[in-house]
Amino acid sequence: MKIFLRTFFLCMLTMVTLTVSARAAEDILKVGLCYGEQALYSAGMQNVRGSGYRLGWFDEQSRAFHQIGRLAQENIAVTAGGTIYVSGGKYCQSRPARTDAVLGGYHVQLSAAFPSFEEAAQAARQLPDAFPAFVDGRYRVRTGSFTSRSAAEAAARAAFSWTDGSGAVRSAGGSAVGPSAAGVTVTDAASHTILFSFDGSGGRHLGIQPDGGGERAETGFNGCTWYGGFEFRRSAGGNIDVINVVELDSYVKGVLPYEMSPSWPLEALKAQAVCARTYALLPSRHYDSARFDVCATTDCQVYRGTGLASDLTDQAVEETAGVVAMYGGKYAETYFCSSNGGASESPENVWSGAVPYLVGKEDPYEGTTDIPDYAYTITYTYSQLSRLLRDKGYSIGTVCGAYVSRTTPSGNAAEIIIRDTAGRTVKLERQDCRWVLGAKSMRFTISGGGGGLFVNDGRSPLAGLSGAYLLSGSGSSAYSGEAAYAVTASGTSKLQPSAAAGNGITITGTGWGHGVGMSQYGAKAMAELGKPYEEILDFYFTGITLERIQ
After folding, report:
1. 3-state SS class at 433
2. Cα distance between residue 307 and residue 319, in whole Å
3. N or C: which end of the chain has fewer CB within 10 A?
4. How far apart are CA 392 and CA 433, in angstroms?
């Protein structure tokens, strides 16, 4: 009966439909792992599942891999061209105090070109300290490893000979070549010998694919394990950008357990998988200038490869394979946050611009599940708040009050007024309400700030109401400590003596994150109540449809 009812519900859920899209496949992503200021001088790669590597490059448009050769070594390093110093197993650009090995950046390049990588590699095996190279679209052989051009030029005066595949002896002279601004060197990370040289001129960049292991091949890099291949981009003689080139759903498998607990219910994981997949495909997420689609940090969504993947998270991805959220024929903005604090928020109240399927509303589900650190409290003295604002570039003196001056229809903070003793004010709006004050969410209140009503003796806020007098129609009388009220333009407000004391404010809130889109803990709660992932997504993204890209 349970299965029947679920099937019936899914058939009746007209707001969310699963269709087959006629769009072309978008199943290969380029993910920036290390780039810009985090670009690497040397990138170590190790087979975790698989054996050896295929060498080549990735087509810029189709993302197809063009293989030129293969390496049998399982532990390699891809390093910016030039002289390489090895110290304690690490590759260094400048000479360290202790040097275990030196791989010179100058070589002798044979004048003969070869029709294939295999023939170049065969010739290289017959020559001392030689290795194949791919330079300007041609297969070459380089030999030697020298720290100066003069040493390479001296070696180039020798004659070089080898036996080709037909058994014929061939010979050629050579010339000295130095480091290329776009070149990279592939070495055996165990023996520290050069295996291959790739000159990235002409718009091509070295790509490697783990060999063996099929679609489940994994590569260790930068402390994590990854599906897919890698592209190494070097420009203007700098360090190397490392980009993971991976199938879309393999990418999602590397996001899911880092954005949502792998132990959570399957339907919640499915909802997160759809959000992650859709988010990655949004054109606005693409880093066109860096030539990749999405980054691997919280600036996009956290992607750390296969380390935390489980049978359950893989199942969630596989059972939603290719499913994306759509609205009006376009990918939906599938924002998510840890917890909305009890009410989601519309993006125009956080950033700017309304989105029809992202509508702030009360969330009845978060309260049905346990959420660690759901409630939070932050306290500032007025001195601390003054320094905080000035450090963030706001012009303000000694703060004497702060209050939430406007809330969103969902009840979240939309505007905050902060006042100093000179009567100057700072107005915080939208996400600044959260970021400037260090609040975890948009859903909070401020107490102790006076609520915009200040008791003042003409010079500064009173330290308290003790000794103060109240003026009434019958004359003045000493304040006795009972509740006092004031009539303002907006109505009657209760005076808070402690708030007028000028000591500081207390921020009291619930939730964690911007509050837009899907609450991850809300999704967990809905899944615990037996809700399918389709209903979860429909609650947080009103009016979307689900489609399967092919």
Report:
1. helix
2. 20
3. N
4. 13
Q: 346 and 275, same structural domain?
A: yes
**84: which strand partners?**
103
* % pLDDT > 90, the chain: 74
Question: What is the C-alpha R_g of the chain?
Answer: 32
234 and 139 assigned to the same domain: yes
Beta strands at 323-327 and 42-49: parallel, antiparallel or unpaired: unpaired
Residue 550: other Cβ atoms inside 10 A: 12
Identify which of 332, 523, 365, 338 has the alpha carbon closest to the alpha carbon of residue 442.
Answer: 338
pLDDT at 499 over 90: no
The pLDDT of residue 27? 86
Give me the pLDDT at residue 459, please: 40
Place of tokens 């105090």: 97
Query: Rounded to a whole number, what is the largest CA-CA distance in the chain?
Result: 121
CB neighbour class for 106 (10 Å; exposed up to 12, middle 13-18, buried from 19)? buried
CB 237 within 8 A of CB 181: yes
Q: What is the dihedral of CA 512, 521, 517, 416, to 10 degrees?
A: -30
Retrieve residue 195's tokens. 């295996």
Q: Rounded distance, CA 29 to CA 226, Å?
A: 13
Torsion angle, CA of 475/476/482/485, rounded to 10 degrees? 70
Q: Is residue 27 part of a domain?
A: yes
pLDDT at 19 over 90: no
Which pLDDT tens digit goes with each residue over 392-428? Answer: 999 999 999 999 999 999 999 999 999 999 889 999 9
Domain that holds residue 297: 17-36+250-370+512-550
540 and 502 in a single domain? The answer is no
User: Are 430 and 322 members of one domain?
Assistant: no
Give tens-digit pLDDT for 347-380: 999 998 899 999 999 999 999 999 999 999 999 9
User: Is position 471 within any domain?
Assistant: no
Is 477 contained in some domain? no
